[in-house]
Design brief:
501 residues; alpha+beta; Beta-Lactamase; Helix Hairpins; Heat Shock Protein 90; five-stranded mixed beta sheet; 11 helices; 15% strand; rod-shaped; binds adenosine-5'-triphosphate; binds magnesium ion
Length: 501
């Protein structure tokens, strides 16, 4: 079972909880270890006291005995017994009967069973704990051996003359251990509470508050408000995150503004084109019918003149010009008519190949040196192949017309927009095809106009080729750019989406 499920989903709460837990464990463990060491030290000090007191008393008894001052022993016992912490002080004989005691009333009674048992055991002469006095004490039983000097007064067969029985109360030691425990616990809790509070304040100030501000700002951005910025000035990771976020929102906002502008322009252009188209179609119709009449009249006229008559030739010339005019009007009508592309999957490389074959049939095309730099990995995409042929035919014709005596025409296709194309960033998901020539190029003041309908610098040009091209690409959700270097040469680049929206 995942315990974290029950913890509130707040970063601040979880961090604070984790820090507090670590703190409780660390402080708790260190306090416990300190407490244990102090307790051990207090106990071992009481133990040492018991040993020292027993040894000192044993020597005092021995010296008293040797000097024959046995009567002073009772008063020594009472004086030492009155010292704080001394709980039991007596001498009992081999049978356990008390001979001397700090409490004279005990003399003649049997000593405590435990003391006697310890005396009888091999571990005598080491301190042991006893509770015979009602609470814990450190005791020691120390036999007073019958040494050579003693045998002046005591019979030689008595091995032990008496057993010194000393108990020191552990009451004071336990009280001080208890007090230490209380102090340590209080300080541990105080330290945990204060440190946790301090860390919580720091966390809130430097982590959760900025993160919350960032989250709120992100929500605003998500809701479409791109003028908001997050205000995190710290130079740490969060500060950097805030900075990058602001930068991202700024770029997003710029891109949106650009896109809106672009759409605006597109709409305005579409509007202009539509009215222009309507106008062109109207004019074309107005002209087309009378033109048919004129052509018919010219046909009648031409038969009026005999073969070889120069007038017949003039009328023939007239008829050719009328045909050309009719062709231009047909182009105009085609241009004006909003033809929906018939989409099917096709490969741009193949479309261009067919166009280049056509171009090579005209004299300028025959003289051109054509370089095909095709991407073999060009994917098939959805397009109207006929309209796309029109696009590349317009571009290729313009190129050969720019330098009729032998243009170097390079056609480059790429399945991915290459990184060296300035627009590569915005054009992922597009294929690219460019048509470059080494003709005179397009002057900077003219390059903005080449896509306008009827803009032409050619005597017999209609100026509709590039505007038609752009219209077809619009219908394909594509795009065309024109570039021309100062040293001449022009490059037209077409971008087409790989997947139709
Ligand atoms: N490769 C090029 N090199 C130099 N100028 C060019 C090139 N392509 C286009 N232009 C310029 O752009 C103008 C417009 O071209 P567009 O194809 O729209 O019409 P056009 O070629 O003049 O007429 P049409 O296409 O009807 O023959 C051209 O007249 C020419 O000035
Ligand atoms: Mg043209």
């Amino acid at each position: 079972m995942n315990i974290l499920r029950f913890v509130p989903r707040s970063l601040f709460f979880r961090l604070s909880l984790a820090v507090s837990l670590v703190m409780v464990v660390v402080f708790g463990a260190s306090s416990y270890i300190t407490f244990r060491i102090q307790s051990e030290q207090s106990l071992s000090a009481t133990k040492t006291q018991a040993i020292l007191l027993t040894r000192a008393l044993k020597n005092t008894i021995r010296i008293g005995m040797e000097s024959g001052h046995t009567e002073s022993l009772a008063s020594i016992f009472q004086t030492v017994g009155a010292l704080p912490g001394v709980e039991k002080l007596r001498v009992f004989n081999e049978e356990g009967k008390i001979r001397y005691s700090m409490k004279p009333s005990e003399v003649g009674h049997l000593t405590d069973e435990l003391d006697y048992t310890v005396y009888r055991s091999p571990e005598r002469s080491t301190p042991f704990q006893s509770e015979t006095t009602g609470h814990r004490s450190f005791c020691m039983v120390e036999p007073i051996e019958n040494e050579a000097k003693c045998q002046r007064c005591h019979p030689r067969e008595n091995e032990v003359l008496g057993v010194l029985d000393v108990c020191l109360s552990m009451g004071d030691t336990e009280k001080s251990i208890e007090y230490n425990r209380f102090l340590l616990l209080s300080f541990t809790w105080l330290a945990v509470i204060l440190t946790s509070a301090l860390i919580s304040v720091i966390l809130k100030r430097f982590v959760t508050a900025p993160v919350e501000r960032l989250a709120r700002t992100m929500e605003s951005v998500e809701a479409g408000k791109l003028d908001v910025r997050v205000d995190i000035r710290s130079g740490d990771e969060l500060g950097r995150l805030g900075g990058s976020f602001n930068e991202m929102v700024r770029k997003l906002s710029d891109t949106r503004a650009e896109l809106e502008k672009f759409h605006h322009r597109q709409l305005a252009r579409a509007d202009r084109m539509a009215s222009l188209g309507e106008m062109a179609a109207g004019i074309a119709h107005e002209i087309k019918n009378p033109l048919a009449g004129i052509y018919g009249a010219a046909q009648v006229l031409v038969n009026e003149f005999p073969e070889g008559d120069p007038k017949r030739e003039i009328v023939g010339e007239m008829m050719t010009l009328i045909k050309r005019l009719d062709g231009t009007i047909r182009d105009l009508l085609n241009f004006a008519r909003y033809t929906e592309p018939q989409f099917s999957r096709a490969n741009v490389n193949e479309v261009i190949d067919k166009v280049l074959f056509l171009v090579q049939q005209i004299p300028e095309g025959k003289r051109a040196r054509i370089v095909r730099d095709f991407d073999p990995a060009m994917p098939e995409i959805e397009m109207d192949s006929e309209q796309m042929k029109q696009v590349f035919l317009n571009l290729a014709l313009n190129a050969v017309q720019a330098k009729p005596d032998g243009v170097a025409l390079t056609v480059r296709t790429r399945g991915e927009v290459p990184a060296d194309i300035p627009e590569a960033k915005h054009r992922s998901g597009y294929v690219m095809a460019s048509v470059s020539d080494d003709g005179p190029g397009i002057p900077a003041d003219r390059i903005g106009k080449v896509f306008q309908p009827f803009f032409t610098t050619k005597e017999s040009g209609t100026g509709l080729g590039l505007s038609m091209t752009r219209k077809i690409l619009d219908l394909h959700d594509g795009w065309i750019t024109a570039e021309s270097g100062s040293g001449g040469g022009a490059t037209f680049t077409v971008f087409l989406p790989k997947v139709r929206a």
